[in-house]
């Protein structure tokens, strides 16, 4: 009974189709590295996919996970340039660093679990064909450069548990048009997080503690919609923009409290955000 595919077992293999036995529990380091496989089904028995297991499989187009509880290590699918579809990505805790980096054909990915809390650095870096992604419901952190240069990414569906977006996480996502963080209680957005997202015209916040003043450098934002509390916490950030729409009518109360805001004329009050869109 085969329980493990050994390290580098099929490295540089010319086989186009390899069936993983239903008894396998672990796929070793570099097990399929640089092989010619075109598709792979990961059976429900697999509990661990080690580092670089499928790295550089240039002809790999689809990955189907039958397991919903499997740890996937870093760089597992790094440089799989033909990979288009990943079904039921199974890790329950994280999307590891560089796991899909340079998968330039990746268009669709679904998740088996909503319990993923972190997307590690460079996880989807340079996935230039990715157009949209629905983040797992329990996701709390998107690390540095996680979606760097995803040039076709237009839509990010943000959940209500997201807390942190790291440096350059979405930098150079040139087709990203709108961000809605209104469901999330955000702790921080780091420097250059959305740098050079040149199509981005609107950002909506409900509660956010800290926005780095350079988080949206190189964007052409037309308006930012935010709560009064978020505005008060991020004066250095909002001073860079021409139009800020506050989400309720307590602006007068803020002014009366002694807050000092530059260019107060750029701030708009709104009871109904939709009429300003």
From the structure above, extract its key features.
277 residues; elongated; 26% strand; 6% helix; four-stranded parallel beta sheet; nine-stranded parallel beta sheet; mainly beta
Which SSEs are present, and which pair or pack?
Elements: E1 4-5, E2 26-27, E3 39-42, E4 48-49, E5 62-65, E6 71-72, E7 85-89, E8 94-95, E9 108-111, E10 118-119, E11 132-134, E12 141-142, E13 155-157, E14 164-165, E15 178-189, E16 202-211, E17 223-226, H1 228-233, H2 235-238, E18 244-246, H3 251-256, E19 267-269
Parallel strand pairs: 1-2, 2-4, 3-5, 4-6, 5-7, 7-9, 8-10, 10-12, 11-13, 12-14, 14-15, 15-16, 16-17, 17-18, 18-19
Structure in words:
- The protein is 6% helix and 26% strand.
- It is mainly beta and 277 residues long.
- Strands 8-10-12-14-15-16-17-18-19 form a nine-stranded parallel beta sheet. Strands 1-2-4-6 form a four-stranded parallel beta sheet, with no helix packed on it. It has a four-stranded parallel beta sheet with strand order 3-5-7-9, with no helix packed on it.
- Helix 3 links the parallel strand 18 and strand 19.
- The longest helix has 6 residues.
- The protein starts with a strand and ends in an 8-residue tail after the last strand.
- The C terminus is likely disordered.
